[in-house]
């Protein structure tokens, strides 16, 4: 399994917002980070280290545009088409010899923003579709959103005052540690040092000032409305500027587009349609940039002002910083309809099904298991499969998570706290849902929420009778630090290194490592800690049905006997053959018309002789088969067909059924023959019920959970079937 291609500061350079207006045209509104260095390859070498590819004149021009300026004392004239872009790290305004002003934020990654704005506003044919532009070696990827064909961004009905609350989606219920509380605090109202009263005259002056402010606001609103009608926004485009290696382009683009770009663009589209959010925020940002140009603000100063006054710009910053660091981007869009808090992320694998190749250390330390990768579509369609086969393992201390939840005023907090208290790694979702506190649908919903927020993972329920070993994928580099944490968490437990060595020295059920039954609960907590850190994995048992030669011979013998019986029940051997096959008036081969050929006597005699020869040959072969069958050894069922070394079975080899549930033809006859040998009626019924697990992919340890049986009962039945099962053990 190769390591997935994820965004990082090397291949993910920036996020930019571009809009198009009916009158003023494209506008490069905002980008983050503020200064984007143009990527460069070493001379004579491509980005991935391979020899350079031939370039045409346009490629050479683009490469020239990407070159940095060697000296700060040689600024560029923006009106010059052949000039260089300003150097990276350039924060202040500069002026050319002829007095032209050069603004630092009007170049991104070596390109003028006015040019980028023009090429990053594609036509309506790209509406809500993947738009990908290559500016070698850069890639610009986006999902453009155009105004509806009516030309008006639709707005939803105005909510009543008591309904204008925070808009929160089901997958965006957050705990305080998941979002930036500092930004929320910035919007809170502040007190004035405890002063609670003012002179009456000052109050009157304040009222007059408020009235004047309201008048100015109304005038400003009218002006904005006129401006909006004259220069309305016709599209916006959130662009991701990438610099991937050539062999990673396709995977990185797909990962970002499906998980981040499309979802954020959809959230922006919703906020624009409901409250004109994107356009209003864009106007605010553009106005600040114009003010910064006039007053010659440094770029750092301007960006600080923009980020503090525009939640749209702040969301662009959050997207870049979170996604480039492989974290969850929890956005806060302060729309007129209420705060909108969408959250996006690139799903992080919390397990691997196989050991990573040598040299790929990025997946070291992840939980090693095939429990997830072996889930078939049939199982997923089965009601309750996931509920019965998986439990929730919190990735942090339960008390810490509960404390964070209790600090959140959201109405769902109480139910989520109960979910955290009830959910144990030893209990399946189905078992948690059997309580009178939470329904099974609530358990599913909250489990999905905690997994989405990377606060938990889904694992097969831990059990003291299961076998756990040191994971071959554990990250031993973390062992010294983990040993200290282990000893601090479990001061009376054996040292971590000793305990891990003991687990793998002679694998056996986990309960045998507990000093006594009274210690079992503590040892299960220790096991959960080890699973959380990827130190151990479960050693599971998988099975295939093996058909021994004795049973194969029995089925073959019965098939042959049935064939001979049907032959004997057919037409009697002495039945006379018609004098001519052409004499029947029902002969379908007789030609129509007056010119039909009438067989001669010789032809009729030849046909009769041919039919007699066929009948004689059939009778002779049937007699030979019957004689050979009579000489065969009659099948005898033995108690242990696996050790039957009878001479008549010497030429046969055992047969493996890869998926017993899908057995057809002769394999289905083998399954029935085995069931007949299970004399106990309950055992024979269980054989047909358990066959769906005999595919080498379903762990036998999970049968009791799925069938809602006692573990002891399930293993008793499996032990009685063991003569006909070939088992393997792995994670």
Automatic annotation (TrEMBL):
This chain's source organism reads Sodiomyces alkalinus (strain CBS 110278 / VKM F-3762 / F11) (Alkaliphilic filamentous fungus)
What this chain does, per the entry, is described as: Mediates inactivation of the TORC1 complex in response to amino acid starvation. Required for meiotic nuclear division.
The record gives the membrane topology as: Peripheral membrane protein
The family assignment reads: Belongs to the NPR3 family.
- InterPro entries given in the database record: HTH_NPRL3, Npr3
User: What highest taxon heads this organism's lineage?
Assistant: Eukaryota
Which residue windows does the record flag with biased composition (Basic and acidic residues)? Answer: 53-66, 160-171, 200-227, 586-597
- Keyword Transferase part of the UniProt annotation: no
Composition skew (Low complexity), residue ranges: 68-83, 573-583
GO CC terms of this entry: GATOR1 complex; vacuolar membrane
Question: Where does the protein principally reside?
Answer: membrane
**Domain called GATOR1 complex protein NPRL3 C-terminal HTH: residue spans:** 665-725
Q: Where is this region: Disordered?
A: 27-95, 155-227, 567-597
Instruction: Quote the protein name from its UniProt record.
Output: Nitrogen permease regulator 3
Alphabetic keyword roster? Meiosis, Signal
- What subcellular locations does the record give? Vacuole membrane
What's one Pfam family the UniProt record gives for this protein?
A: HTH_NPRL3
Bias kind Polar residues: ranges: 187-199
Biological process (GO) annotations held by this record are: cellular response to amino acid starvation; meiotic cell cycle; negative regulation of TORC1 signaling; positive regulation of autophagy; TORC1 signaling
């Amino acid at each position: 399994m190769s390591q997935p291609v994820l965004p990082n500061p090397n291949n993910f350079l920036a996020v930019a917002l571009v809009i198009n207006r009916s009158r003023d045209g494209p506008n490069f509104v905002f980008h983050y980070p503020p200064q984007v260095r143009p990527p460069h390859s070493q001379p004579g070498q491509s980005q991935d280290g391979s020899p350079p590819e031939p370039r045409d004149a346009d490629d050479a021009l683009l490469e020239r545009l990407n070159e940095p300026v060697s000296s700060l004392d040689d600024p560029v004239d923006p009106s010059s088409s052949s000039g260089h872009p300003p150097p990276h790290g350039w924060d202040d305004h500069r002026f050319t010899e002829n007095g032209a002003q050069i603004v630092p934020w009007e170049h991104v990654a070596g390109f003028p923003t006015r040019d980028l704005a023009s090429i990053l506003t594609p036509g309506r044919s790209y509406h809500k579709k993947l738009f990908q532009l290559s500016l070698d070696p850069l890639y610009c990827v986006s999902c453009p959103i155009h105004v509806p064909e009516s030309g008006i961004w639709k707005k939803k009905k105005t909510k009543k005052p008591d309904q204008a609350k925070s808009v929160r989606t089901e997958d965006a219920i957050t705990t305080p540690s998941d979002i930036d509380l500092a930004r929320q605090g910035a919007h809170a109202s502040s007190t004035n040092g405890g002063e609670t009263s003012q002179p009456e005259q000052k109050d009157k002056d304040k009222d007059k000032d408020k009235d004047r402010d309201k008048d100015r606001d109304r005038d400003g609103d009218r002006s904005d409305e006129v401006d909006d009608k004259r220069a309305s926004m016709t599209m916006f485009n959130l662009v991701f500027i990438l610099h991937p290696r050539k062999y990673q382009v396709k995977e990185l683009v797909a990962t970002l587009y499906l998980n981040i770009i499309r979802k954020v663009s959809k959230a922006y589209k919703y906020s624009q349609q409901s409250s004109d959010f994107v356009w209003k925020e864009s106007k605010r940002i553009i106005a600040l940039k114009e003010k910064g140009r006039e007053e010659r603000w440094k770029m750092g100063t301007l960006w600080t002002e923009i980020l503090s006054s525009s939640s749209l710009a702040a969301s662009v910053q959050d997207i870049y910083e979170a996604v480039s660091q492989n974290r969850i981007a929890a956005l806060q869009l302060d729309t007129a309809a209420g705060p909108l808090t969408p959250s996006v992320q690139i799903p992080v694998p919390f397990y691997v099904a196989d050991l990573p190749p040598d040299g790929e250390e990025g997946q070291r330390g992840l939980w090693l298991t095939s429990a997830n990768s072996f889930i078939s579509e049939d199982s997923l369609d089965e009601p309750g499969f996931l509920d019965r086969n998986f439990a929730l393992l919190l990735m942090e201390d339960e008390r810490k998570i509960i404390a964070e939840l209790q600090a959140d005023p959201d109405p769902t907090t109480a139910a989520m706290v109960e979910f955290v208290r009830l959910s144990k790694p030893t209990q399946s979702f189905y078992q948690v849902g059997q309580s009178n506190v939470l329904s099974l649908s609530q358990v599913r919903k909250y489990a999905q929420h905690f997994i989405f927020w990377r606060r938990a993972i889904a694992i097969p329920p831990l059990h003291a009778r299961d076998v756990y070993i040191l994971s071959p994928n554990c990250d031993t580099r973390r062992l010294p630090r983990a040993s200290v944490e282990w000893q601090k968490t479990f001061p009376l437990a054996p040292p971590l290194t000793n305990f891990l060595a003991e687990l793998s020295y002679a694998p056996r059920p986990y309960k045998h490592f507990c000093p006594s039954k009274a210690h079992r609960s503590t040892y299960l907590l220790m096991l959960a800690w080890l699973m959380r850190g990827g130190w151990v994995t479960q050693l599971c048992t998988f099975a295939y049905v093996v058909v021994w030669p004795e049973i194969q011979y029995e089925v073959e013998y019965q098939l042959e006997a049935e064939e001979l019986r049907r032959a004997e029940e057919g037409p009697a051997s002495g039945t006379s053959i018609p004098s001519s096959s052409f004499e029947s008036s029902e002969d379908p081969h007789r030609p129509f018309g007056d010119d039909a050929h009438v067989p001669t006597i010789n032809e009729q005699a030849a046909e009769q002789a041919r039919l007699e020869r066929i009948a004689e040959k059939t009778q002779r072969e049937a007699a030979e088969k019957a004689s050979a069958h009579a000489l065969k050894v009659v099948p005898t069922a033995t108690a242990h067909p696996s050790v039957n070394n009878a001479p008549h079975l010497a030429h046969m080899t055992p047969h493996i059924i890869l998926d017993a549930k899908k057995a057809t033809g002769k394999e289905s006859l083998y399954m029935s023959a085995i069931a007949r040998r299970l004399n106990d009626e309950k055992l024979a019924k269980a054989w047909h019920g358990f066959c769906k697990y005999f595919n080498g992919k379903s762990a036998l340890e999970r049968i009791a959970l799925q069938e809602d049986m006692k573990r002891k009962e399930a293993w008793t039945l499996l032990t009685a079937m063991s003569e006909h099962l070939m088992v393997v053990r792995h994670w």
